[in-house]
């Protein structure tokens, strides 16, 4: 007689010593089934709002009305509140008692910590590239998008392209966790860009440096690319922290 699947000699395998099924386990999981659809929808809503924040659609201090946002996205109040909770955990939103949910205004200390994380992640992504050639099509697409935005004088698009450039740099590591971390970090950084009086003046000079890093990566020199990136981040932090600090002191 053939053996039953998953058995040895037709004998059911013994349960591990000390094993005892939790009472009502199946019933408990069935009760959680409804959470799956709601949670996955909430995560998708959070993804949409995070992207909108990173694109500059919601400036810092903006109140996010449950009725307006939920109605626009066609989601329930509970789903939207879960999405808000996720983004609050990522430091993109803040809940103020009896007032509602607002896009967060970051501090100068926040800004410096963002750059600390960026150095840890972005430079490590380049440092770990291994042997060339490197797959840099996403990096190149972001550079081209930035140059096109500058020609069109579309300064918000230029800012978005610069964010995409750094996301593409991190994606070179091939780590979904690093990608997820950087999406949140760069969305938070975008909140700083809104208070810059002249986004063209801030972003345009870095277009040249973005292309330089791209060309060095295309040439297979990860060591030089990391050096350029580290210098880039130092200069960017210094310029942004100085301007942002002065702007915030006048608020």
UniProtKB/TrEMBL annotation:
Q: What Gene3D superfamilies does the database record attribute to this sequence?
A: GntR ligand-binding domain-like, Winged helix-like DNA-binding domain superfamily/Winged helix DNA-binding domain
Which is one Pfam family of this protein?
FCD
Mind listing the UniProt keywords for this protein, alphabetically?
A: DNA-binding, Transcription, Transcription regulation
Domain of life from the UniProt record: Bacteria
The cross-references to InterPro entries, in alphabetical order and at most eight, read: GntR_C, TF_FadR/GntR_C, Tscrpt_reg_HTH_GntR, WH-like_DNA-bd_sf, WH_DNA-bd_sf
Q: What PROSITE patterns has UniProt attached to this entry?
A: HTH_GNTR (PS50949)
Enumerate the SUPFAM superfamilies for this protein: GntR ligand-binding domain-like (SSF48008), Winged helix' DNA-binding domain (SSF46785)
Name of this chain's protein: GntR family transcriptional regulator
Q: Which organism is it from?
A: Streptomyces rhizosphaericus
The residue ranges of the HTH gntR-type domain are 39-106
Transmembrane annotation, as ranges: none
């Amino acid at each position: 007689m053939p053996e039953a699947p998953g058995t040895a000699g037709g004998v059911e395998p013994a349960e591990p010593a000390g094993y005892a099924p939790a009472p009502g386990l199946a019933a408990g999981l069935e009760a959680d089934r409804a959470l799956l659809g709601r949670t996955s929808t909430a995560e998708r809503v959070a993804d949409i709002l995070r992207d909108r924040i990173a694109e500059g659609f919601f400036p810092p201090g903006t109140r996010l009305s449950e009725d307006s946002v939920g109605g626009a996205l066609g989601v329930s109040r509970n789903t939207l509140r879960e999405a808000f909770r996720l983004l609050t955990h990522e430091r993109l939103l803040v809940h103020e008692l009896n007032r509602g949910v607002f896009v967060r205004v970051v501090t100068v200390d926040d800004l410096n910590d963002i750059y600390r994380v960026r150095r840890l992640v972005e430079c490590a992504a380049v440092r770990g590239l291994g042997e060339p050639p490197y797959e840099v099509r996403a990096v190149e697409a972001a550079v081209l998008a930035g140059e096109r935005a500058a020609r069109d004088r579309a300064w918000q698009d230029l800012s978005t392209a610069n964010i995409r450039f750094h996301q593409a740099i991190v994606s070179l590591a091939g780590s979904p966790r690093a990608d997820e971390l950087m999406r949140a970090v760069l969305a938070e950084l975008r909140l700083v860009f809104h208070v810059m009086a002249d986004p063209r003046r801030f972003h345009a000079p870095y277009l040249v440096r973005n292309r330089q890093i791209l060309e060095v990566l295309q040439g297979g020199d990860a060591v030089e690319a990391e050096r350029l990136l580290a210098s880039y981040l130092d200069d960017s932090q210094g310029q942004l922290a100085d301007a942002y600090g002065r702007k915030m002191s006048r608020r």
